[in-house]
Each structure stands twice: as C-alpha cells, then as structure tokens.
Amino acid sequence: MAPPRKSENKQGVKPGSTQNQVRWTRTEMEHALNSMRQRLAPQITDRALLQQYLEVDNLDVDRAVNRWQTHRARILAGAAPPPSDSSSSSSSDSDGEDDGEGVDEGGIFEGMQANAIAERFNANIEQERRDAALAFRLEIEDSSVGYVVLSPSQAIFFLYICGWDLGVALSRWNSTSLKESFLLLGEFDRMRKPLHREIDVSDEVTLLAQDERLATFINITGRPDWYSLRERLVEADWNLIEAVAAWFRPGVRPERPSSTGNGPGIRVDVNLRELDWPADGDCDAAEGTVMDEGWGQEPNYFAPDNPFPNPPNPVKENPVAATTKPRGTKPIDGRERRNGFLIHIDSSQARETAQIGIRNPELFLIEWICKGKYWYNRFKHNKLGFPEYEAAQNIPPRANPLPEFDWKNQDHINLLNNWRRQVTNRATGYNTRQGSQLWSQEEIDFLISLTEELFQEAKREFKDKTEAELLPLVITNKVKEDWQRRFNAKFTGTIQPGSDKERIDRKSSALMTQRGRIRILVDKYKVTEDKQWFKRQENKKEKAKAKVKVGEKRKRDSSQEVKRESSQEVEEITQGEFESTIATAASDGGESGGEEEEQANDADDEE
DNA sequence: TTCCGGAAAATGCCTCGAGG
DNA sequence: CCTCGAGGCATTTTCCGGAA
Where is this region: Disordered (predicted)? Predict the structure, then answer.
C-alpha cells in the first residue's frame, strides 16, 4: 500500500505531472529512499535511479523494491533488453507480486540498464562493491578534475561514507573540494594505528577501538561471516585500511571460529536464520577489476595535513549529541554497559524511525559488535504475531493467534520504534540528545513569577478590562524568547537540588510544557492544564498510599534512595508528600542492602 | 550471581496542524 | 502570520524473568 499523504499542499506539490496528482514532500521521499536502501543493502544503489522506481510506484517502497529486484535479476541473467517497455516481459514473471498491474513502467527498466551501476551488478555482492569502486574511480578520472587517480581504499572508503550509493558518491565528490574530500577520508586515518594482537580485557580503549574497526570492516564489505573479517583484522594488527586493501585484493577467505564463545561466526537474517557461508572461491577478487592497471598508489595517510588526525570527530549535525558520544562504558539503566557499534544499518541512519505505512522488516533486526563479538536482537512483542519469524523458528501456532504486526498501525509502529531506541541505546551508549532534567522547585517558582509579571503588565496596559478578560494570557513568541533568555541566564550552569549535574539550557517550548503542569498557573491564570500529567500524579499518590498501607515492611532502604539522586524523592517532597517518605525512612531504620532485606523480610513473614 | 533484555511507566522536549 | 495544544519523540527508571 502506498503511504498516506498527510500533507499534500506543501512544497511537494509539483504542477508538472498531470495524470498523477499524487505527490509527496521531500521528507517523505527521504524516508522512502532510506528504507529502500536499507532493504537493498548490501547491494549498490544509485539515488536517482531509486527515485525513479519510487516515483513509478507512488512511493510504495514494497513495490519499488520488488520491481527493482526483478529488473536487477533480469539484468544479472543477461536478459536481452525487452523489445518494448511493456507486457512481454513483466507478465510472465514468476514471483508472486506482479509488477505490471497496468502501471506504465515508463521505460524504467531501460533506465536501470542505462545506469552506470547496472554494468556492475553482480550476484557476488563483494565483487559488486569492488566493481563499484572501479566505476567510481573511472568516473572521477573522466570528470573535469581528471588529474586525480584514486587508490582502492580511497575509492572504497568514499563510497562507504556515501552508503555505497554511486550517484550520491559522485555528486558529493564533485561538489566538494579535493582537500575536503581527503579530509573526510582522514576520519579513518586513526584506524591505521596498530593495536594489540591479543585481547587484553583490561584495556577498554583498545577493545573499543577494535570493536569500531571490526564493525566498520563488516559494513564496508557487507560480508555475513563476521569472524573471518575479525581474523583478517588481527592479521593486519587491526590496521583497518590495510585490511580493506587486502579485502579488495586478493580477498578475505572465510574462516570459522574454532573455539567456543564466538558462536558460529556468521550473521543472521531478520528471522534469525544463519546466513549462508560464502564459498572460498567467491571471496577471491575477480581478475578484471582489481588487476586494472590504472589504480593509484595506496597513500600512507588519506589526509596527511589533517590538523585533527586522532580525535574522533564529534557528531557535527547534532552538537548536543557530542557530549554523549560513546566513550568506553556508560551507565545505562543504572548499569555499566560497554559501548558497541552498529552494523548493517548505516550509523547515520541508526535513528531513522519506522514510518507508518512503509513496510521495512529490516527494522526488526538490530546487529552490533561489542566486546569483540557479534550481537543481535530481534523485535518481538508478546501481544503481536510475526508469522514469518514464527515459521522460520518452527514455533507452533497458537490456539488463538495474536494480531499480526501491522505496518499501518501507529501503535505498532510506536512499539517498534520504542524497542529500537532502547536496544540501540543499550548497545551503543549513543544518544541523540541529552537526558532531560527534572524541574526544581526554584525553577518552578521562577516560571510562576514570569507569568505573574506578565499578568501585572497586562493589567496596567489594558485598564478597561477585567482580570477574567485578560486570562488566559497570550504568550507571544517574543515573550517566549524573553522568558527563555532570562530563565537560562538564571539557572544554566547551576546545580539544582536533586541532581549533581549542571543545568543545561531549556528551550521556551520546554517552559511552555511545564506551565501546564503547575497547579497555581492552571487554577489562578487559566493556563491549559496537562490533564494526562495530573492524572498520573494522582495515580502515583494512590499507589504510594497503598504501598504504605499494605506492606509496611516491604520498603526500600535509605541508601538506595540516596543512590537514586535523580529525583522522584525531591519531587514528592515538594508536592507535600512528607508522610509516605518519612514513613518509608522510619520503617526500615538504618539497615542496608535493599534486595537482601526484602528476602530477609520474606523469611520473617514465613516464620 | 551476574548480565541481558522485554515491557511499560515517568518525565521532559519539541513539532506541526488547526484555527484564530 | 501567529499561537495553542495534542501528541509524537527521546531518555531514564523500574520491575522482573531468564540465560549463562
């Protein structure tokens, strides 16, 4: 099914197409392109061509992918170009989804045939990528700045940066100065440094660097047998660039793990079936491409002049995230978990969420490298059914089948996205933004005073109006800006009770949200109340009461409360819930060890 | 026991469409 | 054009079962 078009009157409307009034926004097209690339990976792609397929299928990624794969298979089979565009070829296709259905393909198959990547299509994906590197080098030599001759690793890494999309790579190369292009590649120079051959479990930094390089190597080659790549890296003393060059020529032979602890050494598909091992011969680089005489020499460094050769660059597009980049281990859910590195899904797309109406089963699987090993996790949910997965795993059907995961159901999409966020966070330690900070009483008071002040001003300015007529106050953007400025001037950098971290800036939107959660502002100044939030507050109170009544003995000890410096305690106290807190503290005295104590209490109860 | 990870609640932040 | 408000998004916390 085509995705819903929520916003047809935005910039996506183009008067051009007549018979096809359905258009889409730039964002929708980007989502579709990303999904399509994810589903085609590790094949090579070309952005313009992908776009053509999506347009023919009205942004229906499912259909576009099917059509693409059908055409690709036809080209791989050496199919002679079909006589004309239409019926003869598509109607006899054996795969279930027929791609015709009266849609005028508009010469789209010819478009693929004419595209530079078609020449490089190969059933052997590794070879397809090597050939794409050659195509990239040749294109660059032909272009106006033709005096550049790339080495294999230069071409490979640049294509990798561009997600193995030849069109993207070429346009990016041509729109970037040579110096900058090499500077981009220079990001990888730090991965040349040899690392310890053996794994020293105590050396966190080395382990982290090894994981990053292994993950990158897997992503560059697209190989399923991760263990083979790891062995090759060890052989190269973990010099990734050397290993990549060796993969290009002569190739990396498959190697199965001999010891336990590494599993079978191969990745899984979205239904958790092991992928096929490549045959020895399939891993050798083909003569034609690599023996090409025109390749440039491998440089010692991609960017010898790089003023920042060593430090990993912070994420540029999101300055906030820079502070939360992986740095070894990081407490998540109150536990230290070592950071890992995603594979399969391009890290630049790691935060791409599932979109309603766009089927993309790839999102059910998250794979990563951590602690020198391959890890994965697959989305399941105890209230939803996954027929393909269940069939693949030989899970017996239920008496009452669960509703199937539905790509058109926003609730299901949200479940999936929540799960992906959680798993990605736990696996990588990477967050897209800083954790939010709880509001202190002083901040709340200041927010109240701002409203108060505005109200007094309004009364002075509109003397003829009654107070009731002035409420609720209109908060103009200008006022919001002013509030934000004053608020941050007062609090940013301070340490507020309930936290040991310095306050970061809050945006005016955050201030506006908080206003609806302050009783005085709601009652006295008619600010629209956040009903959901107040309802939860009520629930919380009741729960706390019930707890006090029922299990006087089953209480957390005080040391645990201190550990949880981040807060609810503070909140509760400011909301006037002294009783329960005090009762808690009193009931369990000065004993220690929450869990043990609970067990002790259970024992007591039994006796 | 320790670690992994599923599920959902809690809290805060932010976007975007409806409607003035 | 501007503001409001609903609801989506992100992170953290909590609880807990189960595997290693």
Answer: 1-26, 75-107, 544-607
